Amino acid sequence: MVIAVATNQTQYLSLENLIAILGRSIALGITAIGQTFVILVASIDLSVASLISATSVLASVIMDGAPAMIVPAVLACLLLGAFVGVLNGLIVSALKVNPLIATLGMSLIIQGCLSAFVSNFAGSVPEAFQIFAYGQIGGVPVALVFLVLLALLAWGILRFTKFGSDIYAAGGNDEAARFAGIKTGRIVVLTHVICSVCAAIAGLYLASRLRSGAPWIGADGVYDLESIAVVVIGGTVLAGGRGGIWGTMAGMLIFSLIDSAFNIAGVDSFAKQVLRGIIIVAAVAFYAIRSKRIVA
Amino acid sequence: MTDGADMQTARRLRLPQINPVWVLLAVLIGAIIFMNPGFTQPTGYMNFLKRAAPLAILAAGQVYVITSGGFDLSVGSLITLVVVGASMLTNNDPAATYWVVPLMLGMGLGVGLLNGLIVCFLRVPSLIATLGMMITLTGLAFMWSGGAPRGYLPDTFRFFGRELIRDVPLVRFIPISVIVLLVVVGLLAWLMHRTNLGRQVHAIGDNPVAAGLAGVPVNRVRITAFMLSGLSGAIAGILLGGFAGVSTDVGSGYELQAITAAVLGGAQLLGGRGSVPAAVGGALALTAIFTLLNFLGLPQPVRQVVQGLILIAAVALAMHRRQQTGT
């Protein structure tokens, strides 16, 4: 069926087609916007995938088909995201734990807590909330409008606020930024909060799209690695301090184009996974190979 | 490891410095014996060692990569690929074991070589490179088996993981996997702590630029470290094939357990410090924790949570100690 849809699309190369392609990577885009922030301060977040699973389940369990529970569910998810972000940020900035390990450990904790409670589809999402994933405003999907607005907001924060310039300063040279009077610890915590809240929103979107919460949705989409790859392809440097939101959006576009190309070509799903791994490494290599720094 | 002479003199003045992982291990073993006195019997501790063997071997390989300043997250999926690949290749033919085992070891070395080449020459950070390798290898394992692995491994292949040498004086029996564990760990420990390669691994992890200027072939040493880790993954896969069944998730989670074990053993993330025996101690301690959780009747997901907490706490403690000592 997917192939049929895809072949249909090739016959109608148009704005509609582009929108359809984008629709598949909204969640990745939202996650990647958050990931851009943490990578800009030279941190990284590998816990987004399990957080996405956790929030998608939490949302659909709280809603449980009742439209009245939409607001509490959304608030609970955003709070969970903020809480995880604060924890990540504090572990990284106050306990000085390597961010890779801190967020990998957090990912284990979240996934463990989640699978202690649910192992299958849980709860259900009311019609009203499915608008987030399926609704349209003048022919354009609501989710796409939301993604563009979120990207604009993120761009505005990075470009025009003091917080934004502090992020670049802390990421470029942590020590120099601290000597300049910037509270870099607080910046790191705040960027982690932004990243985790974005992941929580992505979880909400996926719950709305699947009409129910699935505890494997985040790990299945490899959102942790793919969001990092998207950010790096977009020209944001893993060492921090350089990059931006629009690059990330372009990276997301490239990824969704590759994805739809696979679908059109009818690549078997296991082979797709193999190709994905290779493409991610190749894409990062494409940018990293020019750097003279020794990496490990 | 550079101040060995200093430590010798200091040792006479103060109490001997013991790596905290051994204390932790002793406490955990004590707790296990308290809850299950049968553990002091050969059946108890030999089975424990047998179960810990794959993780301990993995940790011993992982510590090379960590000490050299990198991560190897591809070992878990490598285990899966080894088990699935072996079941496909042997095709229930016992005679096939003799060429499948060397082939699998070669595959481990090959994956390590590929990881090393990607990190050294394409300059991809090892975390991304090996995570990408993890996705790729898992996909390959699925492709190879068509999604549903069939058949089982012949007994000749399962020999390494399952068989015992009986009628041994003192301990009654020794599992083959424990012998494999002792040999592999002995070799890796010797290579790390008694040879030039080990010193070079420490040097490039501590400061790759300085090491390069001092004449260390940085790329070659780094690739060797990844190859040793890949080899340990293949060995662990062969052992696991012996006592776990054939499935596409035998290896999942092992990469993080290996890193946790190495970190528990005091290996310093991003390089410069690491010990093979201590990493093995970390692996035994982690297995002991899981055994305890089992005794307490806690479900599987709790293990993940505990492991995550241990991982973060171990690194946080190490950082705290380093800040206090100012090194």
Automatic annotation (TrEMBL), chain B:
Subcellular location, record wording: Cell membrane
Keywords: Cell inner membrane, Cell membrane, Membrane, Transmembrane, Transmembrane helix, Transport
Transmembrane region(s): 21-39, 96-120, 127-145, 170-191, 225-246, 278-296
GO cellular component annotations of the record: plasma membrane
Annotated InterPro entries: ABC_transp_permease
Membrane topology label: Multi-pass membrane protein
Highest taxon above the source species: Bacteria
Keyword Ligase belongs to the record: no
Alphabetized CDD domains for the sequence: TM_PBP1_transp_AraH_like
Pfam families named in the record: BPD_transp_2
Chief location bin: membrane
Record GO terms (molecular function): transmembrane transporter activity
Quaternary structure (record): The complex is composed of two ATP-binding proteins (LsrA), two transmembrane proteins (LsrC and LsrD) and a solute-binding protein (LsrB).
Biological role stated in the UniProt entry: Part of the ABC transporter complex LsrABCD involved in autoinducer 2 (AI-2) import. Probably responsible for the translocation of the substrate across the membrane.
Protein name: Autoinducer 2 import system permease protein LsrD
Protein source organism: Thalassorhabdomicrobium marinisediminis
Lineage of producing organism: Bacteria, Pseudomonadati, Pseudomonadota, Alphaproteobacteria, Rhodobacterales
